Amino acid sequence: RILILDFGSQYSHLIVRRCREIGVYAELMRCDTNIDDIRNFSAKGIILSGGPYSVYEEEAPHCVPAFWQYVDQTHMPLLGICYGLQEMTYALKGKVSASAKREYGHAELMMKELNAEERKLDNQANHSPAVNGVPTAPRDSEPDPNQVHDNPTAVSPNVHRLFQGLVHNPTRVWMSHGDKVTQLAPGFQAIAVTPSSEYACVAHLEKQMFGLQFHPEVTHTDEGTQLIRNFILKICGAVPSWNMKNFAHTEMERLRRQIGERHVLGALSGGVDSTVAAALLHKAIGHKFHGVLIDTGLLRMHEGPEVIQRLKQHIPGLQVDCIDATQEFFDALKGVTDPEKKRKIIGGLFIECFEKATKELHLPVEGGFLLQGTLYPDVIESISFKGPSATIKTHHNVGGLPAKMKLQVLEPLRELFKDEVRALGMELGIDRSSVWRHPFPGPGLAIRILGEITRERADILRQADDIFLDEIRKSGDYDKIGQAFVVLLPDVKSVGVMGDSRTYEMACCIRAVATSDFMTADWYHMPYDVLARCSSRIINEVTGINRVCYDISSKPPATIEWE
Ligand code: XMP
């Protein structure tokens, strides 16, 4: 396990992703997490993220003072990235200065050769006492310094093992920083430089502490993943055993222990998260799991019956019922336009519906669990240190449940990213068509009907949305898109001509994004002919809409949903 301490960088979650892609479980915690929680995590190594601050600022975030003693006592390997390097330098008595101009963009990183003595020092450090009592993995064999290199840009075997396996020297890295280190902390030395930074990569060879002025976690750093791989596998000695097969096995065991003889009610939407969570629970506890789909009146066209049928087909033996609560939802949302209020009302009503379902299904009202498909990005948004990756919407499932709720929340996917959930779904044998469905938010069409929600507006949006999805499925674009939907715009009515008469109707906006993790997204470059067919069909077939726009905003700075 690798721990990442978050100083508020917009890239922090990418570090977690890179570690997991390499096969090592990693988690993000606030930079000021107390030392007991850090110790209990039993990391093999710790990465300090970047952040938007200056270390000397009054508001600047820092690790707790006991952190540095802990690192020292346990010989914990450490990698500081950008602000993380500056924090390390500051804490260990080096100097950081504000630079007059911000360095932003590509730079060429030139790795230095280590001399024999430095290599020996480094090698000894790797045979240091076991980290937290866990022996480190054996290191690779020593590089052969006599190896001949024909290619002048190839990486010499004498560079630090943080760089081994890299293909080019210099290699392209991505810089994004204002301040920089001007005096190294005692014991540190530069092991790579760029034309504008003599401390682009620094190391304390004995203590296995490293600092990078650039960001290895972003794809703009050509060989960044290899660098992170070297840190976590070669230097920390972590073993790459994180995969969905192991996860499914241990999580099912854990669920069985936690649930015992009690029951679990699952809130199912037909989306990939709740479907995978339901399959996991069904496999773990069988008939003690019961799924319900609440028809809020804010689902997609024909969604209720279709989802029930699909779930029964894809998860054989699953118990699942549909509850019609459309009137309750439209009544409660009458006159409400504020998106956060909509989410709260919907969240509250969902819980009431589940409590009602518990009674109708004759399940015990207390002592049971409620399954939610919360994912790691939701958790990150709720725990992140203040800064650019701080909470943007109070959406998702984390922390939004009313206190009166009598069911305990169960979130078996809360450690996973979306692509990991899909891999888990495939591992559990769920059909591709369920696993690769576009996600659909819990509040459904409510956050896509901007302004007031009425049954009539929901029907209009549902029809437009259905046409849009139909067209992108037919054109073959659906599988290339991460998420696609239509948004009904509020208070915008525009003039049109239909037949011989003028119309004065609503406008809608179609949105399609390409993304793998839903934390960042590009607007999808939809072929013009597909756009043309969507627009023409929506305007012709949906009474109430006479204008269609296409959203060309990426995330960030926009979000995927409009509300
Ligand atoms: P944003 O709009 O934050 O969306 O870029 C990222 C992903 O989250 C979904 N989303 C929600 N899911 N409840 C949910 O269950 C919500 O309130 C909510 N808001 C956004 C969104 O559809 C996208 O997949």
Automatic annotation (TrEMBL):
<dbReference type="GO" id="GO:0005829">
    <property type="term" value="C:cytosol"/>
</dbReference>
<keyword id="KW-0315">Glutamine amidotransferase</keyword>
<dbReference type="InterPro" id="IPR004739">
    <property type="entry name" value="GMP_synth_GATase"/>
</dbReference>
<dbReference type="Pfam" id="PF00958">
    <property type="entry name" value="GMP_synt_C"/>
</dbReference>
<keyword id="KW-0547">Nucleotide-binding</keyword>
<dbReference type="InterPro" id="IPR014729">
    <property type="entry name" value="Rossmann-like_a/b/a_fold"/>
</dbReference>
<dbReference type="InterPro" id="IPR017926">
    <property type="entry name" value="GATASE"/>
</dbReference>
<dbReference type="InterPro" id="IPR025777">
    <property type="entry name" value="GMPS_ATP_PPase_dom"/>
</dbReference>
<dbReference type="GO" id="GO:0003921">
    <property type="term" value="F:GMP synthase activity"/>
</dbReference>
<keyword id="KW-0332">GMP biosynthesis</keyword>
<dbReference type="GO" id="GO:0005524">
    <property type="term" value="F:ATP binding"/>
</dbReference>
<feature type="domain" description="GMPS ATP-PPase">
    <location>
        <begin position="242"/>
        <end position="437"/>
    </location>
</feature>
<feature type="binding site">
    <location>
        <begin position="269"/>
        <end position="275"/>
    </location>
    <ligand>
        <name>ATP</name>
    </ligand>
</feature>
<keyword id="KW-0067">ATP-binding</keyword>
<keyword id="KW-0658">Purine biosynthesis</keyword>
<comment type="pathway">
    <text>Purine metabolism; GMP biosynthesis; GMP from XMP (L-Gln route): step 1/1.</text>
</comment>
<dbReference type="InterPro" id="IPR001674">
    <property type="entry name" value="GMP_synth_C"/>
</dbReference>
<dbReference type="InterPro" id="IPR022955">
    <property type="entry name" value="GMP_synthase"/>
</dbReference>
<keyword id="KW-0436">Ligase</keyword>
<dbReference type="InterPro" id="IPR029062">
    <property type="entry name" value="Class_I_gatase-like"/>
</dbReference>
<feature type="region of interest" description="Disordered">
    <location>
        <begin position="126"/>
        <end position="155"/>
    </location>
</feature>
<protein>
    <recommendedName>
        <fullName>GMP synthase [glutamine-hydrolyzing]</fullName>
        <ecNumber>6.3.5.2</ecNumber>
    </recommendedName>
</protein>
<dbReference type="Pfam" id="PF00117">
    <property type="entry name" value="GATase"/>
</dbReference>
